[in-house]
Design a protein that fits this description.
- With 257 residues, this protein is an alpha/beta fold.
- It has a single domain, classed as 3-Layer(aba) Sandwich (Rossmann fold).
- The protein has helices at 7-20, 53-70, 87-97, 142-153, 170-178, 189-198, 204-215, 219-226; strands at residues 24-26, 32-33, 39-40, 42-44, 78-82, 101-106, 119-122, 130-138, 157-166, 183-188, 232-233, 246-247, 255-256.
């Protein structure tokens, strides 16, 4: 297995895996509706990693190395997985580090964005435990903050959150900093998009559209509604569509189908 010694290696190699194994999907015509209600022109489904054991092991080893850059292992009491996506990664990291594990999940019956977002903790958590929270992907940061609150109520303190990927949204970064929750990801959306463009998975129109989405995540949903397109739910079968788009500077969202 290739040794990854610094953050640049983490970012590049993880981005390569995500693009080459179609863990990121692009759909500029309909987009993907997230559980948070945000609609994006792409979707990163890191749950697929568990189907590639050698690559998954490589990603997990990188996550452990990233954790060690920010906190000594002896200062970690418990590894936490955020259900659903973070659980398999957290379980294997806890196993490799010989640490206890718990996970957080939405309270039973609460699955829609309009529902109460209260999360509950599953497993044994000792008062005063120092925790590392594992996520597969972070968009708005609401799941992270909900997990932090649930863990705090049980007497735990999240020292940091480590995710495979995040969308690089400024609002998310601000919210997490306000709550004193450091977030570190193996790779960024920008790195993934850069690699996807290099291997011709997407073109300049797509990269500009994604940049606009990052600047204003709600604008893409509004653009779809105005043009009569219905977002695809990430909970249903998703066809991979890479539309042939032409850039139109007069379009509000910045491109034209």
């Amino acid at each position: 297995m290739k040794e990854m010694e610094n953050n640049s290696d983490f970012r590049t190699r993880t981005a390569e895996i995500i693009v080459e194994k179609d863990i990121i999907e692009f759909n500029m015509r309909h987009g993907f509706k997230r559980s948070s209600g945000v609609v994006s022109p792409f979707y990163i489904d890191n749950r697929k990693l568990i189907s590639y054991p050698d690559l998954h092991r490589e990603v997990l080893d990188s996550m452990i190395a990233l954790i060690q850059q920010h906190i000594p292992l002896e200062k970690i009491d418990v590894i936490v997985g955020s259900a659903v996506g973070g659980v398999p990664h957290a379980a294997l990291i806890a196993y490799k580090l010989k640490k206890p594990m718990v996970f957080t999940r939405l309270e039973s019956g609460m699955s829609k964005p309009t529902d109460s977002r209260k999360r509950v903790v599953e497993g044994v958590l000792t008062q005063g435990s120092n925790l590392v929270l594992i996520e597969d992907h972070v968009t708005t940061g609401l799941t992270v903050l909900d997990s932090v609150e649930a863990l705090k109520e049980q007497g735990g303190k999240v020292a940091l959150c480590v995710s495979i990927t995040d969308d690089g949204l400024e609002e998310t970064s601000r919210k997490l900093k306000e709550q004193d929750v450091p977030l570190f990801s193996l790779t960024s959306l920008n790195e993934i998009v850069r690699h996807a463009a290099e291997v011709k998975r997407i073109n300049g129109v797509h990269t500009r559209a994604i940049e606009r989405w990052q600047a204003d995540p709600w604008s893409f949903s509004e653009w779809l509604q105005r043009n009569g397109h219905t977002p695809l739910s990430i909970t249903v079968e998703r066809p991979v569509v890479i539309s042939n788009l032409t850039f139109n500077s007069s379009s509000t969202f910045g491109y034209h189908i």
